[in-house]
Amino acid sequence: MTTPTVEETSDVSIDAPIVASHNKYLEDQTVAIRSRTIPWEGYQRASLITEEELSQIRQFEKSPTAALNEAGDSYIDLFLNLLQKLSRADTIQNSLVLIDDVLAESEGRVNIFYRLAEQKGDISLPYRPFFKLLKKDDEYIQLKSAKIITYLLIHSDAATKVDATELFVWIAEQLQNANANIVDIAVQLLQSLLSVPEYRLPFYQTPNAVQSLVGILKKGSSNAQMQYQVIYTLWLLTLIREIAADLQRKFDVVPVFIEIAKAAIKEKVTRVVVATLRNMLSKAPQENMAAMIGNKLLNVCETLAGRKWSDTDITEDLEYLKEELAKSVANLSTWDEYESEVKSGKLEWSPPHLSEQFWKQNASKLNDRDHELLRMLSRIIATSQSPLVLAVAAHDIGQYVKYCANGKRALDEIGAKTQVMQLMTHADPDVRYQALTAVQKLMTHAYNS
Asked: Long-range contacts made by residues 6-14, C-beta under 8 angstroms, separation at least 24?
């Protein structure tokens, strides 16, 4: 996967079509709906549809292609009207099937929808009826409507991009669905939508959207296809510099990507992980370098580069990452190394932690930027499940208070003192020892005025 430059982001191909063939969930439901008989005559007798509408429906069912060629605008107008005035789920489902058939028959059929909207002078068309159906309490109606909206959006004129917030919110909700098939369909729709650069930032700004995507990866799914699809959407997002600069800070994705790359069996999963990491580093090095170094990405890249890959893009991206990371590591001071490690959250007994000289010279730097690194250590103690990480963090808190004037006061203010004291009863003996030692230093070094 060749990583495009910012100028090339509009020329992104989609590897999977809308609702790809490997998931038959929606297709199977459509087959069942086609087999049902809709009592259109009964609706006409009940004045729910007119006689003319009934005639159009029957004509379309007999020969869709001929009907569309003869009077495409009027048939699309009919279907959109049916969606808005009928309330029964089975009739709405059937109407959606007919509309989807129109779009599937030929890519050019989408123009009928836009031509109709222009004729009516209604800027909410052709989307409004389908957006409303996303709130309908019917799974099939929601899925089919989302598919149709997606198709319309990605084929719309570049100059008339619409507000797709309702669809993005719906997708964010489906990413947390207990039904794996629905999650799969939502991700595939997203792959298609994000092929359009204008939709990337709005989706990224949708509440819980990216958090849900990253959550799928953090669950550790063994489904390689799902991993690929989710990371592909993140790759598309990181083509935008603003997103590439923000993704790690908000969602801590670097360690997730690294673990997936180390364990991946499918080459395409490795390819998209490495390409995403390259996006992040090339577009926002200042924001991502520390996390990549701290999480030992250079070591991982060196290991991966030793394998044989059929895709040359993997080799090229790995070489880029290795070169950039190696240059940065070579220029790191001891403090830079320590800062990168803390920011990564992956603490270990590297030399800076054990050097008294290091702490004499650098303890006060934990106060910089409103105690940024000190707060990070506190957060690590509160959230980490690793005994090694907790032991090192507790040790560092002790060294900080030993060598930093007013250190005890700062620890009290951010709540770290209480967190360290709680570690004194931890199950791991080294964690207990480091916590006890840190607390002793806290008690020994009184407040400095």
From this structure: 6/239, 6/241, 6/283, 9/197, 9/239, 9/240, 10/197, 12/195, 12/197, 12/236, 12/239, 13/195, 14/191, 14/192, 14/195
